[in-house]
Every structure is written in structure tokens, then in C-alpha cells.
Amino acid sequence: MSEPRKRSDFDILIVGGGINGCGIARDAVGRGYSVCLAEMNDLASGTSSWSTKLVHGGLRYLEHYEFRLVREALSERELLWANAPHIIRPLRFVLPHQRGLRPRWMLRLGLFLYDHLGGRKLLPATRTLDLRHDPAGAPLKDGFSTAFEYSDCWVDDARLVVLNARDAQARGAQINTRTKVASAERADGLWHATLQDTRDNSTREVSARLLVNAAGPWVDRLLEGALKRNDAHNVRLVQGSHIVVRKLFDHDRAYIFQNADGRIIFAIPYEQDFTLIGTTDRDYDGDPADVAATEEEIVYLADAASEYFRQPIPRSDVVWTYSGVRPLFDDGASKAQEATRDYVLRLDSGGKGTEAPLINIFGGKITTYRRLALSVMEQIEEAIGGGGPAWTAKAALPGGDFPTEGLAELTRSLAKGREALPGGLVERLARNYGTQAHAILEGVATQEDLGEHFGGGLFAREVTHMMDHEWAREAEDVLWRRSKLGLRLSKEEAARLGRWMKERYSGKRSARDARQA
Predict the structure, then answer these.
(1) Is 21 exposed, middle or buried (0-12, 13-18, 19+ CB in 10 A)?
(2) Scanning 41, 293, 462, 479, which has the fewest C-beta atoms within 10 Å of its C-beta?
């Protein structure tokens, strides 16, 4: 029997607007809890937007005997694809056999397990390729004759975060971006927190029955700072960097390459005209906000890919780099690439049954965010009672309410009567917004109907949608998280977009303040 509900502003206060925080907020509010989420920057502005963009089982984790993690991740692939078929899509991976590295029998065994551990239904099974005749062999150096091709999925990671936040808000959660938890303390059986708006430094007080620390790379810093725990040391920060180059091959498959140092890297088709290469694994001890790809990492990735591709990748071919910090649970592994990718949850009841509980989240990955939220919900129900049944397994994310393999048909329906629009625009909107692209394109027949053009196929109509419904406030939010159009806009165009957004946001705030007065 659950304890009587204490009077508070919210049942749950979540710190962190990455995939874990937003996934928990969505699950919790859907079960009937009142939820407040605070993110000190933009949604997905940390680790969740700097991943390799994959929903995958983690083939290499089998080498570290993390069978439960791999099975859980594999079982999530088709489920997440069904819930968000606009931003998640199947992707075939080509794994060339490299003499002197992992033997063929080991690769075959690993891929057999990969095919059968996770309840695969729609994704195609593994097959063997003759690279001397298959188009996947054309971009590779001579000498690679055999490869194995298997299935995983690609995901727009930052949009996955935003869609979880949108659904949480639609169900009643309060989502606060650019809002820092300046302090939080237990009193009278509740958490009392001070939320600080990082734009104007205004503050407000909120109370909650339970606090979830989903701050990602900042999880220990939150414990040390706002929560005043001086002994916090739970995460191992591991830097992963990526490079983007002009398109290296014309087919729609990705590559997974083994390296002599035991690492693997991916080469993935990216944003139609580019190839994404990554990732690195190295320990990081600085401020997560300052992480950036080092010259050593950039050269490492270019050289590693050049071991396989027929056309070498010089440093000058790199058009963009990005880097993120993964907050892995510190399990004492000797190498960064060997540290567990599994998540760890810690429930802190304060040492007294009457004190407000705290749940700390360490680790995790994009693919298993929904399962992590389920585990967190079990701890929340145990700690404060209440809550409805699990519900997210078959609940479409915003825009994902169409058949799993129906993106092409959706694109055709959106394009009907809009043949005058710029080429590729409707397809991109379908991939980003799914069925909600209908709202963006309502009343639109010509380019003029889309409003001001900022460059790269980005128009005011879409930016307005991002600002009004997706918490976008600055040009970076639009260009590098809500979309990847930063690859296509010049610095001058990006600056013009930033000025336009600032003027529009300032005008909306002034109008709101006038109404409240």
C-alpha cells in the first residue's frame, strides 16, 4: 500500500533534457504522475545529439560478454522503428573481413547471435557478400574479397529527444529549457529546488516528491553542486568524436571497419551528400561543455577509414567534426572502449524512510532509453507509489502515426499538389516531422508560401514550427539539433537566421508580457 501523497508542486522533478530525462518524463506523465523537467541548455545539447546516430544492438559488446545489454538493445530496434518510422530507418552494415584481425568463424558466430538474440522480424538477416562483384566492394581497396552484411537502424538522435519531450508536454509535463537547477534540498519529506532561467537569471521555487538526476555527463557535478555531495564519483567520462566528409560512396549501405588496435569505426551515409565516420573512445577529464574533436582524433579517423577505402581521406576533406562525452558508469575497466555501456540506477532514500528519494542515472545509450525509463519507473513506483501500467511499447511518437514501412507513401501524399516546391524539401520534411509535416505544409503550394529562405532549403515556415513547438531559440538549435542544415548554410546565412529568431522570440515575449500585465 502506497504512502499518502504529500503536497507538492510536482510528483517528479527531472534534471536533464537528454534522451534519458525526456524519455522518463514521457513515460512518467503517461502513467499519471505530475512531472517537471529542467534542462540548463537546449534539449539534446549534450551527449544525446553527438552520437553515431544508430539504434543498434552493439555487435562489439558481444566480445565483452554483455549479452543482456545486447539482447535488450536488439529487441528495441524494431519497436522504436515502429514508434518513430520518420526519424528511424533500417540500415544495412557491411563488415569486410580483414586478414589478421578477428577470424571469419568469430564474425559468423557473433552475427548469428546478433540475428537471433533480439526477436528480429522485419529487419533482414545477415548474408555473406562477394566484394569482388557486389557494389559495396567498389569503394574499397583491392584485397577485400569477403564481407558480412547485417541489419541495424539509423536514428536522428536529437529529434528523438525532442519528440519525447513534445509527447511528454502534450500529456501534461512541464518542460523547461535553458533552466538550471541552482539548488535542491530535502525538507519536510519533499525536494525543494530553485530553478534559474539562464537567459535572464530569474528564479522560481518548486517542490517535488522525488528527484531524478538524469544530467548525463554532469550527473556527478549536480550531486557535488546543487545537491552538495562532495564525495560523488560515479561516472567515467569517455570522449567520442566523429568527422563528416563529402560522400565517399553512392549506395545506401554503411560500413563497419575493424582496426588493428581492436577498435571499430563506422562509415555511414549522412544527409544525402556526406559520409559520417566515427567514433573514437578516449577518457576525458575536462568540462563536458568544452569537448571538441582533437586533431589527433580527426587524423585517426581519417587514417583508419583510409585503410579500407580506395580513395584516401586527407585532412582537408573533413567538412565538419563533432564530439560528445559519454557518461559511462565507472566499472574500473582499464580501457575506455572496454567500459560498460550498460546503465546503472541508484536509488537514494536519504537514509531515512521519510526523506524525499533521489534516483541517479549513470550510463545508458540511445537504443535502450525506453527500457531505462521502464526501470526508472519501477523505482519511482516503489519509492512514492501510484502510477499506471507501462504503455510506451506501442505508442507512436509525434509524427510517427503511420505504417512502419510507409515513409515513401507519406512523402508522396505530402508532395501531391506541391510540385512547385524546391526539390528534396518535402522528402526532408517527411523524414523530420512525419505526419506533422502536414501542419507545416498546410496552405503551401509554392516556395513563396514558405516565407523567408535562409539558405539550404530552410524556410521561415519550418523555423516557426521549431520555435513554437520544439523549444528552438537559437540558430544552433535549428541548424545542428532540430536539423543538420548547418552543413549547408554559410556563416552569413546562419547569422541572419539567428537575428531573425532573436527578433521573433523577443517580439513574442514582449507580447506575452503585455498580456500578463
Answers:
(1) buried
(2) 41
Q: Which of 271, 324, 174, 284 is nearest to 486 (CA)?
A: 271
CA distance 15 to 220: 12
CA distances to 217, 225, 494 from 240, in Å: 13, 26, 26
What is residue 235's predicted lDDT score, i.e. its pLDDT?
A: 84
Residues of the chain by 3-state class (helix, strand, coil), percent to 5: 40, 25, 40
What predicted TM-score, i.e. pTM, was given to this entire model? 0.94
Specify whether the CB–CB gap between 454 and 497 falls below 8 A. Answer: yes
* Spatial distance between the Cα atoms of 56 and 367, rounded to a whole number of angstroms: 6
Q: Are 302 and 318 in contact (CB under 8 A)?
A: yes
Q: DSSP letter string over 306-325?
A: HTTBSS---GGGEEEEEEEE
The 10s digit of each residue's pLDDT in 234-279 is 788 999 999 999 999 999 999 999 998 889 999 999 999 999 999 9
Q: Where are the beta strands (DSSP E) in 122-263?
A: 127-130, 146-155, 174-176, 179-187, 190-197, 203-213, 235-246, 254-258
Alpha carbons 337 and 283: distance in angstroms, whole number: 9
Beta bridge partners of 186: 191
CA dihedral defined by 504, 505, 506, 509, rounded to 10 degrees?
A: 120
For residue 331, report the phi and psi dihedrals to the nearest 5 degrees: -100, 10
Contacts of 425 (CB under 8 A, 6+ apart): 457
Q: Is the pLDDT of residue 2 over 60?
A: no
Alpha-carbon distance of 379 to 371, in angstroms, equals: 13
Q: How far is CA 506 from CA 199, 494, 512, in A?
A: 12, 18, 10
- Residue identified by cell 510536482 is 10
**Mean pLDDT for all residues in the chain:** 92
In this predicted structure, what is the pLDDT of residue 487?
Answer: 97
- Residue 464 burial class via C-beta count within 10 angstroms: exposed 0-12, middle 13-18, buried 19 and up: middle
Question: Cβ distance 260 to 232 under 8 Å?
Answer: no
Distance in angstroms (rounded) separating the CA atoms of residues 215 and 389: 26
Whether residue 3 is predicted with pLDDT greater than 60 in this model: the reply is no
pLDDT band at 509 (very low <50, low <70, confident <90, very high): low
Instruction: Quickly count helices (H) and strands (E) in the chain.
Output: 13, 20
Tell which residue, 286, 284, 185, has the closest CA to residue 229: 185
**What are the pLDDT digits (tens) for 186-230?**
999 999 999 999 999 999 999 999 999 999 999 988 888 777 776
